[in-house]
Amino acid sequence: MIQEKLKILLCEDDENFGALLQEYLNSKGFDCDLVGNGEDGYHAFSHKLYDICLLDVMMPKKDGFMLADEIRQTNIDVPIIFLTAKQSKEDTIRGFKIGADDYITKPFSMEELTCRISSIMRRVKGNKKQKAVVFHLGEYVFDSQRQVLVYENQEMKLTTKENELLKLLAQNANHILERQYALKTIWVDDNYFNARSMDVYITKLRKLLQEDPNVGIINVHGKGYKLIIPDGSID
């Protein structure tokens, strides 16, 4: 069985350096997309599933910090490595506060970067194995392994698609679940018919969650959906 290539989003405004880095990463077996500014970076992230993001801090239109902050609003798990020529302690702290996984200062060796990528992805893989499959959503208990939603000792069996969609929402509770991300994760293709299908499942999940007034799924215009739950209700 052929292992799927790790998908990397590289945002770097230095065309020569970016192209060199992209070529190197692809030669090492990664699937690396290169964009030259923060706006294009967010557009790319919104339309493709990436395993890790490499963000230059100083970029036109939208810098790396702003881009990382927007990415974190829609995906709290994807690893982010900042690439920067600046060595400011304040910038480093700011990057980690946004949710960066690593911070590498230019100039750096290509080998060092690939080692850091591999180290982060090993940790991510280990964390995924340990992630809880049971979520407490207000008065509901959602067991994603058994595909059941429980309210006041009454079990509601979920279909596979309902289960997968609710799990993504629960993993991103109180954060935006990007529409394209959900479509590509569950339906693989974000075409019109799959998008309409997902809307139907969102409606079904809303009905299943309507018994607790503190829990609900809201539309976030132009972006996706957000599962609203009381703070601290997920174990």
SSE layout and pairing:
Layout: E1 7-11, H1 15-27, E2 31-35, H2 38-47, E3 52-56, H3 64-74, E4 80-84, H4 89-98, E5 102-105, H5 110-130, E6 134-137, E7 140-143, E8 148-151, E9 154-157, H6 160-171, E10 176-178, H7 179-187, H8 192-208, E11 216-220, E12 224-228
Parallel strand pairs: 1-2, 1-3, 3-4, 4-5
Antiparallel strand pairs: 6-7, 7-8, 8-9, 10-12, 11-12
Distance between the termini: 36 Å
CATH class term of the largest domain: Alpha Beta
Elements, N to C (H/E): EHEHEHEHEHEEEEHEHHEE
Overall mean pLDDT stands at 87
Count the DSSP helices: 8
Q: Please identify the oligomeric state.
A: single chain
Strand line-up in the sheet with most strands: 2-1-3-4-5
Which shape, going by the Cα principal axes? elongated
Largest beta-sheet details: 5 strands, parallel
Plain-language structure description:
With 235 residues, this protein is of the alpha/beta class. The chain folds into 2 domains: 7-130, 3-Layer(aba) Sandwich (Rossmann fold), CATH 3.40.50; 134-228, Orthogonal Bundle (Arc Repressor Mutant, subunit A), CATH 1.10.10.10. 44% of the residues lie in helices and 23% in strands. It contains 8 helices and 12 strands. The chain has a 5-stranded parallel β-sheet with strand order 2-1-3-4-5, sandwiched between helices. Strands 6-7-8-9 form a 4-stranded antiparallel β-sheet, covered by helices on one side. Strands 10-12-11 form a 3-stranded antiparallel β-sheet. Strand 7 (140-143) and strand 8 (148-151) form a beta hairpin. Helix 2 (38-47) packs parallel to helix 3 and helix 6 crosses helix 8 (192-208). The protein starts with 6 loop residues before the first strand and ends in a 7-residue tail after the last strand. The mean pLDDT is 87.
